[in-house]
């Protein structure tokens, strides 16, 4: 009788939209329970309709936001070589050396690391719609200002501020998804958001190709037009991420309290869980190729025999294919609940392709281009299943608030390493870069497989949860 009463009450719950994601999570239990004994029941057809509605409200907006973020972050890579044959690239116009250019890249990741966890705390303190909107406006403004810099000091200052404002976006999005989706539903959604970065790479190359034809217009270099175009879009779209609440009773026993503050017990339990440090180290290994590909793919493509604006245009196919493969790997990982295998197999494929890429003769342009596409695609595809796997093992709001940004913050070590591995004096083959990416990916694949075979009790805040087998 009590069960029927709960079911009737759940089914009569309106689909009205409230102001914010945190409000709808107040009624959700902090303690994670076994689904088999959860008192909440929901009709499967109704649940599918609910998930579709949530998808339509959250996923497209999140994809657009992260697409703009990836464009803002990586457009410096396109600007580096845009119209370099005419002497009008970013480095030539601002009169900076390759070492200074690398410093400008690294300073972004320094501020990104410093402000990632504080930004996630602010997301929790304020409404996600307001905080993410503020971040978008701020980093869009910084990108517009970047188009007006004339010296190395200005470049470094703007890149530092850009990293500060972009820091909280991706971990914040992953954190918010834990309130809307079950663990087995997250990898595909994370993949769609992350895969929008690959679309950003594709659009970035296409935009650079078009804007490159404006070189010299009104006495300005083309890269000064390209960067404000990208940043302006982020400013205009700043009010898109208004996350609105739907009925979430189906997440009882899975999600957590939106306003619950992290306790010392939760923080301590999260910080001493050694499995999380394996995740963090693995995230470093995948961050190296993610960073190097995001920043240097136009340079690498230029080393494949494509020059001038063609080097920008030929960055489009690799990223377009990477989008499809990233989503496909995430779907399979979610469908069969084999996130660790989705991650490790993708890392192994990407690592093997980077080895082949580094070993091929520098004049084997077509073959190197094919392996570059495969390597880039699977280097991106390994990330969503890994993040979904991590969030599935973070069972409280406090653990998610601390664990997710820590994961991405520590991963910035890999992003900094990725800045330095493609050496300009090794053009066009770049063997050091390819072999370094391969080494990190293969080590990461072994770490994931090692973690997979462990069956451990999960403990958070003094609560002993059921034993789980790492999926």
UniProtKB/TrEMBL annotation:
GO MF annotation, one: transmembrane transporter activity
Entry membrane topology: Multi-pass membrane protein
Disordered as annotated region, ranges: 1-39
Keywords annotated in UniProt: Membrane, Transmembrane, Transmembrane helix, Transport
InterPro entries: MFS, MFS_dom, MFS_trans_sf
Primary localization class, coarse: membrane
Superkingdom of this protein's organism: Eukaryota
Domain Major facilitator superfamily (MFS) profile: 58-462
Matches recorded under SUPFAM superfamilies: MFS general substrate transporter
Transmembrane domains' residue ranges: 96-115, 131-150, 156-178, 190-211, 280-306, 313-332, 344-362, 369-390, 402-422, 434-453
Gene Ontology cellular component list: membrane
A Pfam family reported for this protein in Swiss-Prot or TrEMBL: MFS_1
Compartments where located: Membrane
Record-linked PANTHER family: PERMEASE-RELATED, TRANSPORTER, PUTATIVE (AFU_ORTHOLOGUE AFUA_4G04250)-RELATED
Protein name per Swiss-Prot or TrEMBL: Major facilitator superfamily (MFS) profile domain-containing protein
Organism: Pycnoporus cinnabarinus
């Amino acid at each position: 009788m009590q069960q029927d009463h709960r079911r009737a009450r759940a089914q009569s719950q309106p689909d009205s939209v409230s102001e914010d994601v945190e409000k709808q999570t107040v009624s959700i239990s902090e303690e994670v329970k076994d689904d088999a004994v959860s008192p909440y029941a929901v009709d499967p057809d109704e649940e599918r309709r609910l998930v579709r509605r949530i998808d339509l409200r959250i996923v497209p907006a999140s994809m657009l936001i992260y697409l703009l973020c990836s464009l803002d972050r990586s457009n410096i890579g396109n600007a580096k070589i845009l119209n370099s044959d005419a002497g009008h690239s970013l480095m030539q116009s601002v009169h900076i050396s390759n070492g200074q250019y690398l410093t400008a890249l690294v300073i972004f990741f320094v501020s990104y690391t410093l402000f990632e966890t504080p930004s996630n705390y602010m997301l929790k303190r304020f409404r996600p719609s307001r905080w993410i909107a503020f971040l978008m406006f701020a980093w869009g403004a910084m990108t517009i200002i970047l188009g007006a810099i004339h010296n190395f000091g200005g470049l470094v200052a703007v890149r530092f501020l850009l990293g500060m404002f972009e820091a909280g976006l991706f971990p914040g999005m992953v954190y918010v998804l834990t309130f809307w989706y079950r663990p087995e539903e997250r990898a595909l959604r994370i993949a769609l958001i992350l895969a929008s970065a690959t679309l950003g790479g594709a659009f970035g190359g296409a935009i650079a190709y078009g804007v490159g034809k404006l070189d010299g217009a009104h006495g300005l270099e083309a890269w000064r037009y390209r960067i404000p175009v990208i940043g302006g879009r982020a400013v205009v779209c700043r009010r898109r991420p208004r996350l609105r609440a739907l009925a979430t009773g189906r997440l009882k026993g899975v999600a957590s309290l939106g306003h619950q503050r992290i306790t010392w017990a939760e923080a301590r339990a999260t910080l001493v869980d050694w499995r999380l440090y394996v995740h963090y180290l693995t995230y470093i290994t995948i961050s190296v190729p993610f960073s190097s590909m995001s920043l240097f793919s136009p340079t690498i493509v230029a080393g494949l025999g494509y020059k001038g604006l063609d080097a920008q245009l030929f960055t489009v196919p690799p990223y377009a294919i990477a989008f499809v493969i990233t989503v496909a790997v995430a779907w399979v990982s979610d469908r069969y609940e084999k996130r660790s295998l989705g991650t490790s197999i993708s890392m192994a494929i990407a690592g093997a392709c980077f080895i082949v890429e580094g070993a091929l003769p520098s004049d084997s342009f077509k073959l190197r281009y094919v392996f570059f596409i495969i390597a880039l695609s699977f280097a991106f595809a390994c990330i969503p299943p890994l993040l979904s796997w991590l969030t599935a093992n973070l069972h409280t709001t406090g653990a998610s608030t601390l664990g997710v940004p820590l994961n991405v913050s520590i991963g910035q070590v890999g992003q900094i390493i990725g800045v330095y591995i493609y050496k300009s004096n090794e053009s066009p083959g770049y063997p050091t870069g390819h072999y370094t990416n391969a080494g990190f990916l293969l080590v990461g694949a072994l770490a994931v497989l090692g973690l997979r075979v462990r069956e451990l009790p999960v403990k958070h805040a003094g609560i002993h949860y059921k034993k789980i087998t790492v999926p």
